[in-house]
Design goal:
alpha/beta; Rossmann fold; two-stranded antiparallel sheet; 9 helices; 49% helix; binds adenosine-5'-triphosphate; binds magnesium ion
């Protein structure tokens, strides 16, 4: 990105694109991930590329839910790691939750590349999918999980999730917090809490929210969260002509 001046009106969007392209070059992100990113970009454009009050409320509720879980786990894929590797490592430290690799397009090589990228960004340990534990209600590669990670988790933070797996995790009785710019996706509609915001903006805010909760030992009760109402607010924002 050395050829793009920081004054460029789309600098931030171009910087994020560059991070995804680097992810593909490093073998971290799949080529399909570029398409998923494009869809995210389109929704972000419609949302004015900023964090709205419905996202702030979701982040607050997510901080409460995750801090109160007995065994929270952070599930990562190639897109998220390319965009926010350092923030994921920080989140894992603040929350005391392991990072676990879980990708849709099966590739041992890419799983290892994702692990390597996280270690490079300061992670001590990264859990890997295994054949020792599988999720119910799902047939794709994403059913293979770590016995001490997603399999055992009562709450999972899984940004840019796939609708199928989100449904499977919910059917297994687990709480799911996701980040998804599309308030209409199956993931958004199935998760316990959906943060409709760009993961690049949402993660630092979630970390901050957890740090603010820490003095209370995470014990402070969060207000009840109506996910469907928050999705409706996000959809309204997209449809409103003056946004
Ligand atoms: P679903 O299975 O939930 O119906 P999908 O299969 O249509 O969704 P996927 O390709 O699985 O969608 O995932 C891409 C999702 O991630 C899209 O909803 C897209 O808006 C969202 N997304 C992409 N990039 C980002 C980002 N940087 N921040 C937040 N969300 C993003
Ligand atoms: Mg999907």
């Amino acid at each position: 990105m050395t050829d793009v001046p920081t004054s460029h009106p789309r600098y931030e969007s171009l910087r994020i694109r560059d991070a995804i392209v680097t992810g593909v070059k490093r073998g971290v992100t799949s080529e399909h991930g570029l398409i998923a990113h494009g869809r995210g970009e389109a929704y972000d454009y419609l949302l004015g590329e900023r964090t709205h009050p419905f996202a702030v409320a979701a982040i607050d509720a997510a901080a409460h839910l995750l801090s109160q879980a007995s065994h929270p786990v952070i599930s990562v894929n190639g897109n998220v790691v390319a965009l926010v590797a350092a923030d994921l490592v920080r989140l894992s430290e603040v929350l005391g939750a392991p990072l676990e690799v879980n990708i849709f397009h099966a590739s041992k090589q890419r799983e290892q590349a994702i692990r390597g990228y996280l270690l490079e960004h300061g992670a001590d340990e990264v859990l890997m999918p295994s054949t020792d534990a599988t999720l119910d209600f799902i047939d794709s590669n994403r059913k293979f999980v770590h016995p001490q990670g997603i399999h055992k988790a009562d709450a999972i933070f899984v940004p840019l999730e796939d609708g199928d797996r989100c449904q499977a995790l919910r059917r297994m009785g687990k709480a799911v917090v996701t980040v998804d710019l599309n308030p209409m996706s199956r993931t958004s509609r199935t998760a316990s809490i959906t943060i409709v915001d760009n993961v690049v903006r949402a993660l630092p805010l979630l970390i901050q929210g957890l740090e603010n909760l820490a003095p209370y030992g995470g014990a402070k009760q969060g207000a009840a969260f109506d996910n469907i109402a928050h999705l409706a607010a996000a959809e309204q924002e997209i449809r409103s002509p003056d946004s």
